[in-house]
Amino acid sequence: MVQQSHHLLVLHHVLLIIVGFTNTFIWPFCQYFGQLMLLWEVSNIFMNLRNTLKYLGYSRSSTVFVVNEVTFVLTFFLSRIAPMPMFWYQLFYMAAPNPDFWRPEFVVGRLLYCGVLILQGMSVMWFLQILQSVKSHFKR
């Protein structure tokens, strides 16, 4: 399980770099979407803090650990899950009408948005796993 999650995490960040940065620097109308994708990473602060707390020996029931867990779940939801509908609305109804979006040389950019589907699918999968973990933690 740990090894599989590690590979998915690496894949996630490789796709984010390709999709986010490539489009942001090449196409000006994609700058908003690239910045939104960077916002998705806000929750990593609390995920890394969680790992640090575990390394330092804090128990999962300690106040600092529980507060960090709740903050992680909230930031993950607010930065990754909640913006999804608005992201796709803005892509299809604001970016797609832009003439640059349909230029032949932007075919790679349009295909890279398929990578966004993968990234967001992975975020939904991880959020469901996070909710399961939180649920099991509070059942104890």
UniProtKB/TrEMBL annotation:
<feature type="transmembrane region" description="Helical">
    <location>
        <begin position="110"/>
        <end position="131"/>
    </location>
</feature>
<keyword id="KW-0472">Membrane</keyword>
<keyword id="KW-1133">Transmembrane helix</keyword>
<dbReference type="Pfam" id="PF03798">
    <property type="entry name" value="TRAM_LAG1_CLN8"/>
</dbReference>
<feature type="domain" description="TLC">
    <location>
        <begin position="1"/>
        <end position="139"/>
    </location>
</feature>
<dbReference type="InterPro" id="IPR006634">
    <property type="entry name" value="TLC-dom"/>
</dbReference>
<feature type="transmembrane region" description="Helical">
    <location>
        <begin position="7"/>
        <end position="26"/>
    </location>
</feature>
<protein>
    <submittedName>
        <fullName>TLC domain-containing protein 4-B-like</fullName>
    </submittedName>
</protein>
<feature type="transmembrane region" description="Helical">
    <location>
        <begin position="70"/>
        <end position="90"/>
    </location>
</feature>
<keyword id="KW-0812">Transmembrane</keyword>
<dbReference type="InterPro" id="IPR050846">
    <property type="entry name" value="TLCD"/>
</dbReference>
<dbReference type="GO" id="GO:0016020">
    <property type="term" value="C:membrane"/>
</dbReference>
